[in-house]
Specification:
- By secondary structure, the protein is mostly helical.
- Among the domains are: about 150-195, no CATH class; about 215-265, no CATH class.
- It has eleven helices and six strands.
- It has helices at about 25-30, 35-40, 40-60, 105-120, 140-150, 150-180, 215-225, 230-240, 245-285, 295, 300-305, and strands at about 65, 75-80, 85-90, 95-100, 180-185, 190-195.
- The strands form three sheets. Strands 1-4 form a two-stranded antiparallel sheet.
- The protein is flat and about 110 Å long.
- Residues about 295-329 have low confidence and may be disordered.
Length: about 325
């Protein structure tokens, strides 16, 4: 219990769900899933499932119906110790299972559907988390369900933005109270914040968005469609919601450059590894080169290779053996 020297309490608290219209504090707060838990809908679902599967089990082992012409006849002798039961009946007696029609009451299915619907209304629709609709569902119906899935978390999203804004505002005011320079860091970037740069009245607004699973796929499809139609930086910021698009562009360029350099280095490395093997194979497969054969390999006649003739001159001229006579047309 001592003074800590700040003009505010360094604690941020907001109501996630609820309202201040009520007088009692316990009635002002209504957390997410509170209605579902207090209503006991999950207990009702368990009760209905128990009734359904109890009826199914009773139908798998039905009651046996024994018919006899005389009331004095004793029950049939049944030996169930073997895989094939042995039942002894007197002439005129009959034994058959009493099959019940409609093992599952349709009212139980109706009650279960109502319970599941109420559960979704007090929590979140399953289609919001990616459950597909039926084959006859239209696009507008799917879009409406996706938007309706946001409703239970709209208030939580807004209150979360308020809480983050209050925490940032408190951090800046705290830094102002300390008076000295404070360092702020984002990834590898570090900057200093002076007291005079922080205003006395500070308002911060934070926008928190809800990202659903199907929206990520939809954003990726839109990104691919708009490629080469708008700038890459605009797509990253407005479609994929990247907070620092320029920094992301630098990372993409760096990764592309690394891939190109690695591919070039890998090709050179493979060539260096194959050159000794090619030289060995060439030395083993080619016989010794005799005089004149080297020139033949280079495309020159053997006589020219031995020095008896010079290479042909321009087209349409021939040189005499001897070397320096005029060419004849």
């Amino acid at each position: 219990m001592e003074q800590y020297g700040l003009p505010f309490i360094p604690v941020v608290g907001v109501l996630g769900n609820g309202s201040r219209l009520f007088n009692k504090a316990e009635e002002m707060r209504e957390p997410f899933l509170y209605t579902f838990i207090e209503s006991g809908m999950w207990n009702r679902q368990n009760l209905i499932y128990t009734a359904i599967y109890t009826a199914v089990q009773a139908g798998l082992w039905p009651t046996m119906l024994f018919s006899t012409p005389s009331e004095s006849d004793a029950l049939p002798q049944m030996d169930l110790t073997y895989p094939f039961a042995i039942i002894k009946l007197i002439t005129g007696q009959g034994l058959a299972p009493m099959l019940a029609k409609g093992i599952i009451d349709p009212a139980l299915i109706t009650a279960l559907e109502m319970t599941e619907r109420k559960g979704q209304e007090s929590t979140i629709y399953k289609q919001t988390l990616g459950q597909p609709l039926g084959a006859g569902a239209s696009f507008s119906e799917t879009a409406l369900l996706h938007q309706a899935g946001r409703l239970p978390v709209v208030m939580i999203r807004e209150k979360l933005g308020w809480a983050i804004a209050d925490a940032l505002k408190m951090a800046f005011l705290w830094s102002r109270e300390l008076g000295s320079k404070q360092k702020a860091r984002y990834n590898n970037a570090i900057t200093e914040i002076e007291r005079k740069s922080i205003p006395k009245t500070l308002e911060i607004e934070i926008s928190v968005d809800v990202t659903l699973p199907q929206e990520a796929l939809q954003s990726a499809n839109i990104f691919n469609i708009l490629q080469d139609k708008v700038s890459q930086e605009w797509l990253l910021e407005n479609v994929l919601k990247v907070r620092q698009p320029s920094e992301m562009m630098n990372k993409i360029r760096t990764e592309q450059a690394v891939k190109v350099l690695f591919g070039s280095w890998l090709q050179q490395r493979v060539k260096q590894m194959l050159q000794p093997q090619q030289s060995i194979n060439a030395g083993q497969s080619q016989p010794p080169v005799e005089p004149g054969q080297e020139a033949q390999l280079q495309g020159l006649p053997p006589v020219m290779a031995q020095g008896g003739m010079q290479a042909p001159g321009p087209a349409g001229y021939e040189q005499m053996p001897g070397g320096e006579g005029e060419g004849l047309e």
